Structures are given as C-alpha cells and as structure tokens.
Amino acid sequence: MATSQLFMWRLASLIPGVLLALLLSIFISTQTADAAVRYWDGGGGTDNWCTAANWSNNDTPDSNDRAAINIAVPGGIDIDCSINSQGLVNNTGAVAVTASSGVTVTMGSWGIQLANSTGSFDFSAATIVNVSGTVTISAGTFTAPSGTMNVKTNFTHTGGTFNHNNGTISMYSTANSDVKSTGTFYNLKMAKSGSTYTMGAATSGDVIVENDLTLANGKFDCSSSQSIDVRGDLVIQSSTDAPTYPCPVELTGANSTTISAYNATSLFDSNITINKTNTSDTVTLLHDVDFNESGQDILLTKGTLVLDDNGFIVDGSSSTFTVAAAGIVKMDGDETGLTFASGQPTMSAGSEVILTNDSGTNTVPNWTYEDLTFNGGNYTLGANLDVNGTLTLSSGTFATGTNSSYQINVADAWVDAGTGVFTEGTGTVVFDGSTSINSNEAFYNVTIGGSVTDTATLAATLDVDGTLTVSSGTFDSGNYQINANAWTDSGTGTFTEGTGTVVFDGTGTIASNDAFNDVTINTSVTSTQTLGADLDVNGDLTVSAGTLALSTYGLDLEGTLTNSATITDASGALTIATNFTNSGTYTAGANLDVEGNFTNSGTFTAGSSAINVGGNFANTSTFTSNTSTVTLDTTGTATVSGSTSFYGLVCTTAGKTVNFTAGTTTTVADTFNFTGSAVSPIVLASTSGGSAWNLNVSAAGTVTPYYLTVSDSNATSTVLASDTTLGTGNTNWTVDAIAPSLPVITSVVTDTANSSYTFTGTKEADSDIFEDGVEVYALDAGTSWSWATTLSAGVNNFSFTSKDAALNESAAVAVSITLDTAAPADLTVSSSTEATNNSSYTLTGGKETNSSILDSDSVIVTIDAGTTWEYALTLDEGENSFTLSSKDEAGNESADVAHSITLDSTGPAQPVMASVERTDQSNITLNGTGEALATVWRDSVQTTTVDADGNFSLSFTPEFGVNSYSLFLKDALGNSSSSLLVTIERSPFRSRGAGPSRGGGGGGAYSSFGNQVVPVDVESSEGAESAESSEGAESAESDEAQIEASDSISVDEIVESIVEESAEGGEEGGESNVEFSLAGDISLEPAESSESSEGAESSENAESSDSSESSESAESSDSSESAESAATSESSDSSESTSSESTVSAPAPAVSAPVVVAPVPQPTRAEVKATQRQARDDRRDRRQVERAKQREQQKSEGILGQIEIKQSILENIPSRSDLNEVPQRLSVFQNITDAVNEVVSESASEDSSSESTEVAVEVETETGSTSGSTAESAAEESSTEEASTEAVTVESILTAVTEEGVPEILIDIFLAKIESDSEFDGNQDSDGDGMTDSEELLYGSDPLSVDSDGDGVSDAEEIFENGTDPFSSDSDGDGIVDTEDENPLEYDYVEVEAEVIDSYQAAVGQEVDIDVADSDFDGISDSEELALGTDPQNSDSDGDGVTDGDEKLVYGTDPSIVSSQQEFESTAVTNVSDNYLAPAGPQLFSGRSEPGTTLEVYLMIDGQQTLVGSTEVDSEGKYSMFTDDLPAGDHTLMATSTNGKIGGVDLFKVSVVEDTGVQTPTFNSEVLDDGNVVREAKLELTPELDSIPEAGLKIVMNWQSTLVAQSFTIDRQHSSLEIVPPSLLGPGEHTVTWYAQDKGTGQLGAPQKLTFIVAGFGGIGLGGKSPIALIAGAVAMMLALGSLAMLSKNKGALARSRA
User: Fold this and answer.
1) Are residues 584 and 564 in contact, defined by beta-carbon separation less than 8 angstroms?
2) In angstroms, rounded to a whole number, what is the distance separating the alpha carbons of residues 678 and 1059?
3) For 1480-1509, what is the mean pLDDT?
4) Rounded CA gap, 1604 and 1596, in Å?
5) Cβ-count burial of 1014 within 10 angstroms (0-12 exposed, 13-18 middle, 19+ buried)?
6) For the chain: N or C, fewer Cβ within 10 A?
7) Which of 856-870, 999-1013, 1289-1303, 1336-1350 shows the lowest per-residue confidence on average (mean pLDDT)?
8) Secondary structure (DSSP) of 814-868
9) 1001: left (phi over 0), alpha (psi -120 to 50) or beta
10) Is the pLDDT of residue 1267 over 80?
11) What whole-number distance in Å separates Cα of residue 75 and Cα of residue 69?
C-alpha cells in the first residue's frame, strides 16, 4: 500500500484538500471486495512486469487483481512472464507495455482498457492473448499478437491505433458481443454459439478485415449502413441464425480469395458483394454454398467468381444473384446445384460467363448471357441460348445438343478465338444486334434480326449450311464470301453486298430484296437453286454446277452471266448489263434483256417472251426460238453470226448497223421488223462486202422493213419494204410506199355519260390502228376494228391513223367526245293541273337546252336546243298521272317531276222537274232537282244554279202560244246533261175544259215535261215583250230555221266574219248587232259600238302613221295601196285588243226533241290572235317591199343619203370574267341600234339643210302597232288622237339604264320584237345559246339568234371561249372564215395560186407585177385583192361606197360584201390582229371609230389602266397613231373612242419581244432637202441602200395627212422600188408611217415614220424647174384637189374615192 499512499500524497500537493478527499472517497467506493487493484509504481527499479516491487503492495497482479498503470514509465513495462490478471487498465500512464516473446497474456472479466494517448499495449510477441472481458481501445496504440487474441465479451476500438499485426481476433463464448473498430482487422473469427454479434465501426463506415473472416458460430447484426469488408477468405464453418439486421459482407482486395463452407448446411444470412480490385481477381467457392434467407442478395460487382464444381444456391424469397459489368462467373459445368430464386442470375451488360471443363459433356445453363466464352470442355445446349453480348469460342466443343433445333441469339459478336469447335446441328443462329461475325465453323441457319440501327458485319467467311435470312437491321458482308444453301428476306432487313461473292452450294431458294455483288451457283449436279424473288446482281452471275431455276422471278445483272450448267426460266425476266454466255443449258420463259453480247455455245431454248440484245448475237450451237422475238435494241453496230432460226427478229433503233456473217442463213418464221427513220435508216449488210448473207422470211409472218439500207442480202422470198434504199447484191427485195386508206369510225357520239367507251370502225385489210401514235388495234387481215377506252371528264380528243405492214401511215382522223356526267336541271311544268273536260291536253314547261323530255322513261319530246317544251296528248277519263324527267345528249337524266290532270267529261244527270207554278199574271216558275251546284240552262242561256241540296227554281215569262224549252245542266267543267224538253203554252184566254180555273183573269197555259203536259194559267200582259232576244221563238218558227250539222260553219269562217263585220261596224261608227244562231250551238256577240269604234280609230291612226312613213319618197299610189291592203289587218288588231268584250258561248247540248244538232268547235283566243298576227305580218311585208323600192329608186337616181347613226355603247361594259378574257371585239346588237337609230335620208336636193335630231321608236304592243316617224311626220299626224309615236334622244337612251347596265329603251324594243307584254327577265336565255338576254344586249350579240353572224359558231362560244367576233365570220380579216381558220385571231397570208394569176393577167391583157401593182389605186396590191376575192380593177368591189383599201386596211371590214354603217363606226384597231407579236418600242395603231371623237389606247396591268397614246378621229371615222414605248411581255390593250357621251371599246392582246426577226426597211426621197422639204408636186420614196426590203415581206404604209393606207408585197429584193402617195399631197406638213409584216407568220417589224413638208409655190425658189412646168403642176394639183372635193361632197361622209 506504500505506493498508493505515495501517489495520494503527490496528488494532494497538486490539488486542494477538498478535491483530494472527494477522489479518495470515489476510489474507495469503487473497490470490490473480491478484486484488488495493483498500481504500477516502479518501486522495484526495473521495467519487468513480474517484479512484485514494481506494483503497489509489492504484489504482482494475479487473476484476482486488476493491473492499473497510471504513471509515466519512461522505460516502459516489459511483460516478461506469462500473466493472468483480472484486467489491464492504462488510463493516464504514459507508458509502453510490451509482452515478451512466447509469453501468454490472460485477462479476466475486466478485460483490457487503453485510454492514454501516450500509452501503448504491444502484444505482438505474445504467444496468445486471452481476454474474458472487453477489449476497449480509446487512445494510445494497441498491437495485437501475430497469433490469436481471444475476446470473450466485446471488442471496442473507438480511438487510438489498433495494429492487427496479421493476427486473428477471435470472438467466443455465448454472450452477445459488440465488435466495433475504426481500424482494420487482419483475421476475424466469430465463434460465439447462439450469440449475436453487433458488428460495425466505432463511429461510421465498415468493419474491415484485411484477411480472412471466419464464421464459426453466432449471428451478426449491423446497422443498415454498415458492412464487413473482407479482403481475404470467407470461411463459413457452421450454420448461422438470422439476425435482426444481417451484416452485409463485401469481398474486396486485389487478390484471389475463397469462400469455404465445411458442410452442406452452411448458410450465410447476409448479403455478399464481390468487388475485387481487378476483374482477374478471383473468388473461388471451395464448397457448396446455400444462401436461403429472404431478400438475401449476392452481387458480383467486379472480379471473377469461380464456382469450381461447387453448388451455388441463392433461393431465398426475393433473393438475387447479379453479375455487374465487370463481373465474371467461371464454372466448369460440374456444379451440383445452380439454383436461383429468379430462375437465373441477372447478367448486366459487360458481364461474362466462362465455361470450362476438364472432361465429360456438360449442358450450358439456361441463362440469358451478356458475354459467353467457351474455354475448354464439351458443352451442349439444353434450351435456346440467348447471348446479349459476345459469344466466344476459344477452346473445347460447343454443339446444339440432342435437340439440334435449339436457337442461339447473339447480339454483339461471334468470335472464333482459338481451337474451339462449333457443331451447328439444324438450329438457327440469330444475330440480333450490331454483331461482328467471325466464325471458322459452319452454321446451319443464320438470321440477321437486329433493330433498324443495328448492323451485323462479317469479319470472316460465313458458311451457312441451311438458310441465311435477313429479317431486320443491316447485314454487311464486307469483302468476305458467304456460302449458303438458301437466302431469304423475311422483313425489313437490308443487305450490303460489299465486294465479296455469295456462293449458293446446295438446294434452296434465293429470295433477297437487296442486290448481291457476285453470285455463284455451285451445287451438285442434282441440286437446284430456285429464285423466290427477283435477283439483283451488281457484279457477275456464274452458274458452274447444278441448276438455277428462275421460276417466275426476274434477274437484273449488271455484270456478265456465264452459264456452264443449267438455267431454267419459267416466267422470270432477266436483265443483263453486259454479256450473256451460255455453254450449258438455258431454258427461257420470260424476257431476256442482254445489253452486251449474246453468245450461245450450248443449248438455248427460248419461250414466248422477248430476247433483247444490245451487242452481237452469236450462236454456234443449238438455239430454239419457239415463239420468242429477238430484238437488236441499242445503237451502234451489231453482228449476227451463225445460222440461226428465229421466230421473230426485230430492230427499231434508227441508225443502227447490223452485219450478218457472210454465207450464213437467218431464218425468221413470224415477225421480221426492221424499222429505222427517214433521217437515220437501219443498215443491213454482210460482214464481207460482195458476199451475200441469206434471209429466209416466212410469207405467213409479219414483215415490216421500213427505212432501211440493204446490201448483199439474198432473200429466199419477196420482202416488201417501205422507204428503203436497196444497195447492190440484193435478191427478192421490193420497196412499198403506199399509205393505207383512212380509218373509218362508225361509233362516234358527241356526248356521253358513260366513261367506258368503245370505238368501232372499218379499216384497210392488213393494217393496224393507232391513236395519237399508240397502237390500239393490232394489224390483222380483217377490215373492222374496235378499241375500248376510258373517257375523262370534259372534252376527250382522239386522233386515229392506220398503218400497213410496211409501216406506211394514213392521214389522221380527229374525233372529240365529251364525257358529261352532270344531270340536266330539273324540268318545269307550266300546264294547268285543274280538272278539265277537254281530252285534248298539252303539257308545257321549261327545260335545259339540248335535252329531251321523258314520261315514265319514254321519250315524248326529242332533244332540241330550246328551253321550252310542249307535248300534245289525249287524256283518259279520270286522273292522268305523269312522271316527267329530262335527259341530255349524254344520257344524263334529271330528277322526276310528278304532274297530274283529271279529265272529267261526263255530264250530270238530266234535270228532273218537280212542279210548275204561276208567280203572277205573266211569269211562271219551274221547280226541279239536279246535281248539286250545277248551272241550269234554258236553251242556250244560263238561268240559275242548283243549290247544295239539289233543288233549283227557274222563273220567266213565256210567250203567248206554245213554247218549247230545252232544260239541261252543266257542271263546273262545262259538261252538259241530256236535255229535258219543256213545253209551255200561254194563252190570252182561259182554257176551256183543260182544267180547273187557277184564278180570275189572264190567259191559260200548260206545261209538258217529256210526255206529260201540265196546264198552267198565266195572266196576259198586253204589249209586254222580253227585252232580250227571243231565241226560243226564232228557233220554233220553222224547221228551215234550224241549221243542220252538215251546214256548220268552220271556225276560220266565223273569225273572218267577225273581223269583217267588226271592221264594217267600226267604219260606220254605229252599234252592230251581229248574231249567229247555229241550231243554238254558237252565239257570237260583238263588242259594244264604243269599243269597236275606238279600236277602228286606233287602227286608222296607226295605219296612217305607217302610210305616212312609207310615202316619204314613194308614189302616192303606193301609199294608198299600202293603206288599203292593211285595212283588214288593222281591224283584226282592233278586234284582238277588245276581245275581252266579245263572248263565244259554249255550244248548247242537243235537245232530246225535236232536233239533235252536232256541236261546231268554237274558235279559241289563240286562234283568233294568230289570224290577226298573220294579217299584221302581211301588212309589214308589204311595207318592207315599199321601202326597198324607195331605196332602189334613190340609188338609181344617184342620190345616196347621208346616214347618221348615233351608236350607243355603255362606258362600263360588264365583264363575265376577268378583263383579260373579254372578247376581242365588243360590237352593239345590230337590231337594237337599228331600232334606236332610224335611218334618216337626206333630201335629194343639196340645199336641204335641216336634219332630224330625234329618233323615232316603233313599239308593238298588244293594243296594236304604233310607229313613229321623224319629227316632221309626227307633226303631220298630230291630229290623230291616239298617236303612239315616242321621240327619244341618244342622251335619254343612255341615262335610262337598269341595275344590270342594260338601257331600258333597249329592253322595251327587245320585248316589242318578241311581242311580249311581260316583264323583262335578263337571266332568261331566249335563243338557248348559253348567254343570258342581258349579256347578249350588253355584248352586242342577238338575243334571238344562237349564231348572230351565221358562221356556225354560237355567240357564247365566240365571246367566252374563242374570243372571236360574233358579228364577223372572219375575225382576223385574213380572208379565211373562222370555222376553217386554224388561227382565227391571227392573220394568215393566203398565197395566190398561179392559175388565178394567169387568168387575171389574161383578163387585163398585160403582164402585171401583182405583188407591187395597185391597178385600181385603192391602197392594196393586186395580189392581195386576188387573195381576198375582190376586183383588182375596181376600187370598191362590193359597191358600198367605201374603197377596198379602206375596208381592208382602215375599217377592218370585208371588202367583198356590203358592210353596215355600224361596222364602219364601231371602234376597232384594224392594222393588227389579236395576240400578235411585235417588237419592243412604240406601236403603230390605225383603224376606225366614231367620227370627231378622241381615240385613246390604254395598257391594262393588274386591273389598272395606263394611257399610252391618243389621237383625234377624223370626220371619216379614221385614225392613225404611235403609242409610247411598250415593255417586253404579254399585254392587254384597250382602245376606246369617246366624246364624253358615246364611246366604243376594242380589247386585244399583244406579245412584245425584243426582236421579232422582221426588219422594216427604211425609205427616203431624193427630192427632200436637208430640212425635209419637198418643192415638187411629186414625192417618190425609195429604200435606202442599207435597207433593201427582204423578199416575202408585206409593206403597209399610212399617209397621215389623208389617212390613206397602202399595202403591197415584196416578192424579191427591190433596190429601185418607188413608192408614191395614192393621192396628191397639198402644201403643209405631212407624215407617212409604215411597217413590215412577214406574210407567212404575220409577225410585225418595228414601225417607221417620216415627217416632211410640201412647200407652196409662192416665195419658193424654182428649184431648177421652169415656171411653165411649175404652173402646169399647180394647175394639175388644183384640178385633182377639186375633183377629190367634189367626189367627197357627192358621195357623203363615208363614201371615199382614191385618185
């Protein structure tokens, strides 16, 4: 205890006493009764543990003592003997405790504690350290023994340093223990049976075991974030129990380690991760290992796990075995158990399984592999093998096994890396990724089945004993060869051929969608390769052994085909880009196309298809053609060598040369067709000139040699050629050049609704039919043909020709058929639907033009161009129903329209008389019954109506005496019942004995109904008579008064009588009672006298007006004759106008007694009106004859009145389409202008100066015809009360315009023309030409004529489709009517035939240069006049007062026929045609327009108008002008003439180019001085030397001062050509313009202009001339000018003459 006391005293010297007392108290309280603490005090003076003096109490700690070292021991303490203490503690001592070598250290339950940072325990030399308690290291350095340190309780290392010294820490006993360390163990052994180890680092991280971890007993519990890192072996010596938190074990380190399990039940409950430093670091199983805990995972992250014949079981629930990218599993196949909860390991990309084996045959585990390597041993498949990475065959053998159809899928690569052997069996290897295929072994079947982006690439020759299938992805053969029995493309895969060869060496099918490079067929003699798809070979095809069967597929070969075996072709076409060589057997079944040479030295059997050869044809063996045709089909020279029999031999390559080997025979059994061209004929020759080649052509075949050059050909029979040149050495060759006759078409329709159409016709025998250059009917010996085609919507144009065997072709036959599938518009029915008793019925209505009318599919109205229809028929009794439709020319039918009408012709029953009563002394009442609501008639007079109950009463006053009445009924339709004869006797005296008295006074009467007589007393009324006509009394006077049926008067006679009587009554002015009694059948009562008189007066006034108009220049006798002849017609008009006042009674029914009379038909209103209209038409005809006589009389007297026409054209003419589509000419409707502007004739005397300024309009109305004359004649007729003349001015006409832009006065005139009193319907198409009436009025065509100019083309087609003039049959004025003119809007020059020229020159008696001469001085040459059909010797051929030159060159009218005044004054540009071609620059325009107006020309661009020129129109309606420069391009120009009120428009198109190729010559005159002044009366223009006119030009000149045009044609170059004006030019400035026109094309040259001055004779030098000559010239000019003025004055404003 001395040491302890010393320690206390020292401590007491350092701290206060209080603290010392406290420490002592604590120290004493911690001591136990059975354990003492021995403190090191070093009292022994040594460092030896076993020196007792060094310890307190001089007592060495024993098994009951704890050794405590709390002081610094500089020299350290040496455990120099084996010790056994309760524990060892160093908390404060700075001392190093070191065990001597060989000692044993045993510590009790207090264990070992090291807490001094400067202290250390070094047990490295100790033999063994046994610690029953806990080892706690919190500071300092602890060095374990190199042997074993057994720890019974806990091992806690939380600070300081723990040196494992490559020793083993062994945990034992049964108590639970903690094993925590911040350092590393070397070997760690767990041997605590039934106990739990709480494993983990003292702070964080894993427990590290640098060498081995031995699991002998116990179980391990770790936190979820910690594990045991084992870098040596893992030894499992016994089963372990499942801990709450199993400790994961991670096997790491850069070494090879093992996992040992010493019995089959060894279990390990924790997760194991193998994560070695290197992939080559191995972990080897030395025993079977069973991991069976739920959720227990084995992860091979990196390194190699070697199973080494041991079982490896991971079968706990949800347990996995995962091999990561750097993991390798190596096994030899003898593993007794490979069991996994998921069925197989999870192999990550990059992982590998290596199969090795020492002996025996093993089965490849049924796993999904990434990389799989066979490295020794023998392996077979037990199931399909799936390798997602690389399959490497390094050594050993690999076979598909007993089931040889197992499939192997390889994604990345197949590598033969050594001596391994693969036995393919009959299975399939599928390369399903971007695979590199490098195999020295043969496969059975191979499939390329990667994704779209995957490419399988050959790295060595590929040998496939079965089928190679390219299913998906890309297969790149590179430069390697492929050997296969069969090839198929089963999906979307692509084969890239590279430069290798595909060798098919067995029996199979080749079905590839992709091209090969070279292909070789090298099978056994009995084997066949069959195509299963078209074969495309970019290189060569070699058939060296076996058979290639093309089957039904084609061959496209870019290289050479070499056949030394057998090729059979069922129907597959072959295309060979180079040469075909056959030394074996070839059987063709389809087309063979050889672009190079064809060489046959074997057996070639053709089928029925074509053989095309681009090079030479050589046959030295057997060539059987059957029915095939050989065609030599490329340019250049080809040689046909060998004697060959062809079925057909053809060459249609123009310019080709075919040489036949001399001495050989070419036999053609069917078709011999050699056709060149006119420019490049085909040459047939011998290979040796002068030595013939033989041609044997069958007469029964088709022989068509055409455009050939033939030499040295010995034909065995006649060869008929066309357009062929025969050289020397030919035999039996003949040339045929006669074309066949035109084909005839017998089936043409113009319109159809069926798109399927068949042409039929006739032809010349031995000819074929072509349509637009394509054969549609093959050549045969027949004379009929047919062709079925499908029509397109709209117009289908066809052109048919015929060719004979010699290919001579006929002219073309053009046919147009319109496919119209649109049904016509539904028809309309305007007929009445009310019931009728007239069986004669007419259906009427409207329809689409060019359509028929059908009733229940039966045609009742045939096709016509009208828009209305009618059909007369006889109705059946009762309801008549119709199902109506219309059908157009194409057969399209409209929808059905239902219509019905009821015929009711049965009259009511005869009336029944019930009683007769006397109502007063004079009247009686008849009471009876009959059909309800029927009318009751007494004789022919309607009296009353039967009421709804069937009763009626009839009261009247009978005449004295016996009265017979016929009573009958009429229903609502006018049907009459049979008559009931009623007899009434009225007497002034009472009847005696006839019956009782009926009252006083009056007379007696009796009545009888049929055979019953009823007396009636009627009072007499003296002197009273009926106010109405007593029809009954008249009819009863005598039988002669009755008119029998045979004496009936016709309707025409009745109407005529009415007209005559009405006229007479009108003339007398009194009342006329005209009555016709036809047995009571017809009663015609005239109108009242006032109406008749009014009508007569009106007709007199109208006639007077007409008569006055007609007699302006005619004799008075003519006028009176006209008035007399019109009397009846005028009265008829009056009768018609008052027909509503006249009554035509329906015929009364025949009475039952005493007489039955047949009814006479009554005249209808239409018939009466027709008779009146005919009379009026006769009157008009007579009036027109009178006017014609007046005009002829005026002409004969030499008086031609000045015609003044105020032409009205709207300023804004509405367009039906865009402005560019407006027709070329917009003329005003002729009939309208004639109606608006009456011809006003001048007085014959020159001093008549007054002119009418008003226009009279004649309007026909339903009340008669009223006509207006001039203002003067109107004044004369002012006394007529009902005059209807309406005077209007042009200004008033233009201001009254409808919304549609149509002048109202024009509408009135149009309605009068068609005799219509209805409102104007501008949308109606009166003439059915496709234009509405409004459009026709606006565009100026005739609304009542489909074809206004009568040229066979409708107005609508001319205006809206052709752009031609609807009022001229020759729109371009070239003398060719539009219907025969190919270019109706372009001037076509007409050559004059030589016979015409000869006839003309013979007629004039001298030779005339007709192209230059102008014999009649009218401005156009004699040749043009002959072409136009006018008289070259008469300046006005048609006698209309305008010279031929002005008509042709200025007005643009036809000089051969009389033109209307309107034509002369309508605006037009006449010197150019529509769509003409002109050079860029200013344009020269001349033509006609309204005199005195301004002519303006506008350029139309995008709807905008740009003014490009203007000029004044002279008094004769002529103008000439230059425009501004026009740019190049296609333009639309508008010429318009306007004076602010009336305008005219001409639209035309021009194409402006930089140069048309037509050069206009330049003219000048020698008499012009430097100032362009001429001082002579004569001006001659001659061409300048550098501008001699070219032959073929037409020169058109226009002298601006007189607006006189000239035209002549240059037939040769004229250097001395002289041109003089057609009339003398007066003093002043003048301009002449001219341009050239190519007479063939109509194209224009640039216009030229020359301005000069004609000087007067006063004040001007004589210019070298004598005064007498100048005076004579002046006199001549004055006389000429005076003559021109006189002619102009006499001939009127538009009558012109050319001197």
Assistant:
1) yes
2) 84
3) 80
4) 11
5) middle
6) N
7) 999-1013
8) EEEEEE--PPPPPPEE-S--S-BS-SEEEEEEE--SSEEEEETTEEEEEEES-SE
9) left
10) no
11) 13
Among positive and negative, which fits the CA dihedral 278, 279, 284, 290?
positive
* Helices and strands in the chain: count of H runs, count of E runs: 19, 124
- Which pLDDT tens digit goes with each residue over 185-208? 999 888 776 556 666 555 566 788
Q: What is the rounded average pLDDT for all residues in the chain?
A: 74
930-951 b/e with 16+ CB inside 10 Å = b? Answer: bbeebbbbbbbbebeebeeeee
The reply to whether omega before 1154 is within 30° of 0 (cis) is yes
Sheet holding 1604-1609, edge to edge: 1573-1574, 1648-1654, 1628-1638, 1593-1599, 1604-1609
Highest averaged pLDDT of the listed ranges 189-198, 691-700, 1480-1489, 1596-1605: 691-700
What are the residues facing 369 on neighbouring strands? 387
Contact (CB, 8 A) for 1509 and 1523:
yes
- Whether 417 has a pLDDT exceeding 60, the answer reads yes
Quick: pLDDT tens for 465-482.
Answer: 999 999 999 999 999 999
Residues 392/368, Cβ–Cβ less than 8 Å: no
Question: Which residues neighbour 1426 within 8 Å (Cβ) at sequence distance 6 or greater?
Answer: 1392, 1396, 1397, 1400, 1410, 1432
Buried b (16+ CB within 10 A) or exposed e, 605-640: bbbebbbbbbbbbbbeeebebeebbbbbbeeeebbb
What is the pLDDT averaged over residues 1062-1085?
33
Rounded alpha-carbon distances, angstroms, from residue 237 to 11, 189, 214, 245, 1422: 54, 10, 7, 21, 139
Give, for 548, the enclosing helix (H) or strand (E): strand 547-549
CA distances (Å), origin 794, targets 755, 757, 821, 887, 1412 = 10, 14, 9, 18, 49
**Measured distance CA(431)–CA(451) in Å, rounded:** 10
Which pair of structure tokens corresponds to residue 1005?
């009467």
User: Taking a C-beta distance cutoff of 8 angstroms, is the pair 791, 755 a contact?
Assistant: yes
Which helix (H) or strand (E) covers residue 1033, if one does? helix 1031-1036
Query: Which tens digit of pLDDT belongs to each residue from 1197-1249?
Result: 433 332 232 233 333 333 333 323 333 333 333 333 343 343 333 333 333 33
Rounded average pLDDT over 1575-1581: 58
CB-based contact 836:825 (threshold 8 Å): no
DSSP letter at 1303 equals B
Task: Identify residue 824 by its one-letter amino acid code.
Answer: P
Cα–Cα distance for residue pair 656/633, rounded to 1 Å: 9
Tokens (6 digits) for 1327: 């003439």
Interval 588-616 mean pLDDT: 92
Residues 655 and 406: their CA atoms lie apart, in Å, by 64
Rounded to an integer, what distance in angstroms lies between the CA atom of residue 1147 and that of residue 7?
Answer: 174
Instruction: Give residue 278's pLDDT.
Output: 95
H or E segment to which residue 1173 belongs: helix 1165-1196
CB atoms < 10 A from the CB of 1162, how many? Answer: 15
C-alpha span between 309 and 292 (Å, rounded): 20
Distance in angstroms (rounded) separating the CA atoms of residues 125 and 147: 9
The pLDDT assigned to 309 comes to 77
The Cα–Cα gap between 135 and 188 comes to 14
Which long-range contacts link 178-184 to residues 24+ away (Cβ below 8 Å)? 178/154, 179/154, 179/155, 179/207, 180/154, 180/155, 180/156, 180/207, 181/155, 181/156, 181/157, 181/207, 181/208, 182/157, 182/158, 183/157, 183/208, 184/208, 184/209, 184/210
Coil, strand or helix at 1336: helix
pLDDT computed for residue 1609 by the predictor = 64
pLDDT, tens only, 1002-1012:
333 444 444 33
Torsion of CA 492, 498, 502, 508, to 10 degrees: 0
CA distance 1336 to 1344: 9
- Global pTM reads 0.45
